[in-house]
Structures are given as C-alpha cells and as structure tokens.
Amino acid sequence: GENVEQHPSTLSVQEGDSAVIKCTYSDSASNYFPWYKQELGKRPQLIIDIRSNVGEKKDQRIAVTLNKTAKHFSLHITETQPEDSAVYFCAADRDFNKFYFGSGTKLNVKP
Amino acid sequence: DTGVSQDPRHKITKRGQNVTFRCDPISEHNRLYWYRQTLGQGPEFLTYFQNEAQLEKSRLLSDRFSAERPKGSFSTLEIQRTEQGDSAMYLCASSLLTSGTDNEQFFGPGTRLTVL
User: I want to staple A34 with a disulfide (CB 3.0 to 4.6 A). Which of A49, B15, B22, B33 is the partner?
Assistant: First the structure.
C-alpha cells in the first residue's frame, strides 16, 4: 500500500516568514494530493490540493509543488500569520479512493 | 449546519462494551469514509462506502469493527468488545465523486472514544 512520510513534525517561524512542509509518497500511481489544516479540537479542512498532471498550484499565500519523478510534494506558506498556526496534514490518493495521510506538521507562527 | 455531523462527540466506555457511532454526511454526497486518528498522528483509513456499498475495509480493521450505510445516507460504525487500544478520535468524511471532479473529502468533527 501507499506510505506517506511528512516532515518536519514541528515547525516554528516568525510572523511574516515563509514555512515549507514536505511529504514523500511511495506509490507512483497516486494521482491526487490534498493538504488539510487542523486547528486544535476542530475537524481537518482542505486548504489546497493538486493533481498529478500539474506541477504547481497557488492560492493566495499558499502553494503546493509536486515532483512526480521524485515522488514528493511540498506545501509553501508565505507571509505567515498567527492564524496559520495549526497542524497540517498531507495526503495521497490513487484514483480517488481513500486518502493516505502523513503524520502531520505542527506549525507555530510566533507574533 | 449543512456539513458532516457525527454523534456522539464523546464516548467513554469500559473495556469489553460495544459502542456505535453515527455519521451524517453532506446530503447527496455519494462517498462516505471512516478514519481513525490517534494523538499526534494523521487520520488512518478504516473503510469507505459508495452509496450503500462498502467498497473497501482496511486490513488493519479487526473483525470487532463493522460499518453500515443501509440507505446510502447516514452510516454507523460499531466496535464490539472494545479494547483500550481502540481509544482514538473516529472521523467521518464525505465526498461527491463524479466524472471530472476531485475527491475533496469533507470531514466531520469526530467522535472521541475513551476506553477505560
């Protein structure tokens, strides 16, 4: 089955700095890669996603890049704000079935 | 609230008891998923349905776990003879999978199970 690894497990940045979270996956057939944000005590919410036929996708301060050859994808958050503090999960999906999640990155944005 | 709902939000039970959780997906969503999340980990797939058909169960899921979605709307997850290792957050998600769409899964708030 698919194996998704995520790092770092914790990330602390100063407000206004950029944050990068990286994930690798093992199944070359995986073709959909969502990123979820989970605030303390709340449900995971999708923040951005990318399909395997696209190398990069941006949405305001958030971007995701995908390298299919290396089987890794990354989340980039620019101009971080305290409200970006949360746990972020990457996931991989093959043919729109179940998600395999990474173990999460706890992002702390210091004001 | 038109999002995914789960009931109960919290459940405390004694080892060996049976528990049942309910998930109400977003209406007209044809896919429904169950995940388990333990502290400090990402959600782990348990099972999923397309309409009323259960399409896949995780190999990690023991025979004590069973899930149903009898009319293709709400779903129940039952755990029989609970063990302390079953303590976790149980998350439900739903999606509308049609031709040309991505499988964006919308999560419920979860049911936190504590087995004493």
Answer: A49
